[in-house]
Design a protein that fits this description.
The protein is α/β, with parallel strands linked by helices. The chain has 12 helices and 16 strands.
């Protein structure tokens, strides 16, 4: 079920990847302004929302900067070698490449580590988490000996599909309403099937990593640039909305959020669709907000005392060195 191998595929030269380093780049990226929901919007700002066309696309350096604040996680053995996974039905098929997965949420990565340990039957198997900037994974390409996949949080995918269907006028089969569009929102299979026919152009939730934003979001201003925040976690978007709304209490904030959901004020995209739109000037300059849970775990790992990592087996093994640099925090 599992193969361990040292990679020989070099990643671009890395910057230090830590919660503190990511937070510093995040602050540097948005300094000079503030962002909120429904505060201080003038007419001109309201007319420019997440779906507006700017006419000027993001440069590659701007995209690299936006992606540099997003950590992703891969599994590694104690020596820092990446974990390559093979499906049981493919283990004897030499034409099937093993999979190296990069997870957008640390909790999903830890769950996979625990599952692999369980399947291996080895209680002493000690898998670690290596942290990589999302931009480095996207720019590295795919090595010849494996498939590389960016794994979205399945909970966020389910929420994204539900939001797409609610925006298309669907209601839950157990709810009251007049819409003839009905689906069982508790069934992932039903939601997934219906969603395929109603996703916006260019948004593929079967293959992509979901992103969330609000259509009329007050964006951060950096110099003359208007920036559109996109959240990898819908719960983080909700918390940001509640914290930034002008509502005087949580009940009023919740009511405002429900109105946004009903009126299609929440925009669902994927990493691929948002970057393509930003490159083509079809949306405002994008800024990615990583899951708060991932940054919290990274901070905990850096604050906890850690043993010195073992030497990488090869000076050319960039991923192993990266795992060592990341502190090789316990992923189980």
């Amino acid at each position: 079920l599992l193969a361990l191998a040292a990679t020989t595929h070099a990643f671009p030269r890395k910057r230090h990847t830590s919660a503190a380093a990511i937070h510093r780049r995040k602050r540097r990226f948005v300094r000079g302004g503030a962002w909120g929901f429904g505060k201080g919007q003038d007419k001109e700002t309201k007319e420019e929302n997440a779906t507006a066309t700017t006419g000027e696309g993001m440069s590659q350096s701007q995209i690299d900067e936006a992606l540099s604040v997003v950590p992703v996680f891969c599994l590694a053995d104690p020596e820092g070698r990446p974990v390559l996974m093979t499906a049981p039905e493919d283990k004897d098929d030499a034409t099937k490449k093993p999979l190296q997965a990069f997870f957008t949420d640390v909790n999903v990565a830890q769950a996979h580590a625990a599952r692999i340990k369980e399947l291996s039957g080895d209680d002493k198997l000690d898998l670690k988490l290596a942290v990589v900037e999302l931009g480095r994974v996207l720019s590295a390409g795919e090595p010849e000996d494996r498939k590389v996949s960016l794994m979205a949080d399945p909970r966020e995918l389910h929420v994204a599909r539900q939001l797409v269907l609610k925006g298309a006028g669907f209601r839950d089969k157990n709810s009251t309403g007049t819409s003839d569009k009905v689906v069982d929102f508790s069934s992932e299979a039903s939601v997934k099937k219906e969603c395929r026919a109603h996703c916006p152009d260019g948004v593929d939730l079967d293959q992509g990593v979901p992103l969330f934003t609000l259509k009329d979001l007050n964006a951060t201003v950096q110099g003359d640039d208007i920036i559109q925040p996109w959240f990898l976690s819908f719960a983080d978007l909700v918390r940001a909305y509640v914290n930034s709304t002008s509502a005087t209490d949580e009940e009023a904030a919740a009511s405002g959020l429900e109105r946004l959901l009903m009126e299609g004020g929440v925009v669902v995209g994927t990493l691929d669709s948002v970057l393509a739109a930003a490159r083509g000037g079809q949306t405002r300059r994008a800024f990615m907000i990583p899951p708060a849970s991932s940054l919290a775990v990274m901070r905990q790992q850096q604050q906890a005392p850690a043993a010195a990592p073992k030497a990488a087996p090869s000076a050319d093994d960039a991923l192993a060195a990266m795992a060592a640099d990341a502190g090789a925090g316990d992923g189980g």
